[in-house]
Design brief:
2 copies of one chain form a homodimer. Chain A has 285 residues and is an alpha/beta fold. The first copy, chain A, has 13 helices and 8 strands. The model of chain A has no long low-confidence stretch (mean pLDDT 95).
Chain lengths: 285, 285
């Protein structure tokens, strides 16, 4: 089976890498960046590079792994061209707008809307790593709008990457992801900016930063291209989450100013409860 | 040499653990919590538990590893009792108020104000790990106010833990630490609270949280006792940092609302620059 991967960055490249050595699979790559294509070949992420037209016409499975704004643009064009034997998968981090875009498309049933929950703060084909998806979760949205064979093949592909798939509506997906992922990225980007802004003396960041800072600003290294599209596509829920976050910070600032240590202590104790929830996550791994 | 450690939590316990097997050192512990004392003995962090009076009178070196508000309270009382052959070290995360408290003390020269930059989000003696300080940085403040032999012995102790010591004024220390460490903790505590607040459905945090959330809210698991004292002791700089952070978040929120993707993209690109600074840190490790 030929699997075509459109967009060979962190996610597309990592999927490619895990599929590359599976028996009977030929991984065909496409990327608008010639240097990404070259790197993908060099790192043996893909067997061949072909045009997007080739992939659309020939590949039994087409995986779209580009920023979410571009997915929304190219997905309908790809569905226009495929036969009813092909499968089109996307792996974007927002689902509502993308799903809405193709809801009435005559080939909607050949499309499966997916979001494998995995990643790192790095980007590009150099960032591709094998095993990125192992024991992680995958979400499929609007399962009922996809043909059964398309869903089954998608499940097999994600299973071969080591993922467990869950089903959620696109709106639910975007809401929950704004809370548990997108907000973390805003928080981290702006923390990075604040530290760079306040700490004019970079030597001191270098000297004094500990593992605490490294962990909280890790996501600030993420790709602006990927994340500006996600924030725009999911603006409603991201804004809601961000407003809530700012109001918690404002409240904490007031407590500090009022020297109300008892109240700020209590808020930190409530925040500690995230330990219990996350321990559940770790325990399940 | 008898080294007395007052407060056997994450930091005191980890210091104890690394000193425990060094030739010629007997580690004497004290903690107000009887269960901490029991655990410290059981985990072989300390050779013996003694009273604070015993430690003050008998130990050549006394390391104070309790929350910073308590350090400020007990440090003068300990200095009152020691001879001019003993060394008193504190390892608190703020230095200005503690140093000010003993500036005019007749035994000021037997005290060394230190801050080993290391830790985890866990607390208590169970959280003590060996090697916590290896290849990390230590700060000593007001070196000139400590006797040379006291500084030399302190340097030896931190060196035996694998640390490199730098010298900074207490005000500079507190300012930089607010930027590169304390703000990260506020950010993470409030992020934890926001996620718990927005995401009433804990099962979804559990299902959907990825490594991104785990990393940004990690510090939200930290001890409220330790951190409320740090925030109170360093309120001026923490408030400044937090105000700056909130204004960056507010600005980002406005850009999202205005759908000004170009401007938000640019901010994320600026934030990416933290990569360069942190890579320096990683490279040096």
């Amino acid at each position: 089976m030929q699997i075509g991967i459109i967009g060979i960055g962190l996610i597309g490249g990592s999927i490619a890498k895990d599929l590359y050595n599976q028996i009977g699979i030929e991984v065909i790559g496409y990327d608008t960046s010639p240097s990404h294509c070259e790197t993908a070949l060099h790192l043996q992420l893909v067997h061949r590079i072909e045009s997007i037209e080739y992939i659309t016409e020939k590949c039994e499975t087409i995986i779209i792994a580009v920023p979410v704004d571009i997915i929304a643009n190219i997905l309908p064009l790809i569905l226009d061209k495929i036969s009813d034997k092909q499968l089109v998968l996307d792996v974007g981090s927002t689902k509502q707008k993308i799903c809405a875009k193709v809801k009435a498309h005559p080939r909607r049933n050949r499309y499966v809307a997916a979001h494998p929950l995995a990643g790192t703060e790095f980007s590009g084909p150099e960032a591709a790593i094998s095993g990125l998806f192992r024991n992680k979760k995958n979400i499929i949205c609007e399962r009922a709008l996809s043909a059964k064979d398309a869903v089954d093949l998608s499940l097999k592909i994600f299973q071969s990457l080591g993922m467990h798939t869950y089903f959620l509506g696109p709106q639910e997906h975007d809401k929950h992801l704004a809370y548990v992922s997108h907000l973390s990225h805003v928080s981290s980007f702006m923390l990075g900016l604040t530290v760079l802004d306040l700490e004019k003396d970079e030597k001191q960041i270098f000297n004094l930063a500990s593992t605490g800072l490294t962990s909280t600003v890790r996501l600030a290294k993420s790709s602006p291209k990927t994340w500006s599209a996600i924030f725009e596509n999911n603006s409603e829920y991201v804004e809601e989450a961000l407003e809530n976050y700012i109001s918690h910070l404002e409240n904490f600032l007031q407590l500090l100013k009022q020297k109300d240590t008892k109240a700020s202590y209590q808020l930190m104790e409530e925040a500690n409860d995230i330990k219990r929830v996350l321990n559940g996550i770790v325990a399940e791994k």
